[in-house]
Amino acid sequence: MLMVLAAGWAFFLTFIIITDVIGRTVFNTPIYGVPEIVMNSIVMIVFLQAGYAIRSGSMLRANFLAKNFPPSISRFVLTLGYLLGAIFFLMILFGSWDSAIHAWVAGEYEGEGALRVPAWPTRFTILFGSLIATISYLLMAYIEIFKPSQVDAEAELKAKSDNAA
Description:
Number of strands: 2
Strand content: under 5%
Low-confidence stretches: none
Number of domains: 1
Mean pLDDT: 85
Number of helices: 6
Shape: elongated
Largest sheet: 2 strands, antiparallel
């Protein structure tokens, strides 16, 4: 769902940028606030898509190392990578907490002039995206350690063979 929201916002953002470029070049009248909107939107899009990228296996990782190790070492390396990723996003979560609260309470804005963009949506999106990313990495570590799909499949096969007998 967050991936779809981020993709939709990125699609909408392209129209804002195109309109601003046409306004600047053809009519010599830019749309005020576009740089601030784009700056905040890119951060929001990245953090909204982080959880999906992790769960789909699209996040940056060195598969060539894991594939060349024996299965037990490969599982250890992948689990360690997932746990380090969880720690990284947890540090972002705790490190961003105060600035998000401050942006909300103080009414912090980005930009000068005609359009000032509130900073709190971006700050809270970073918090939310970091939380989802942390949970996703912990879930991936759990799956790598316990392989619940294999355990469920083996239990199902055993149950079918017991019922057949």
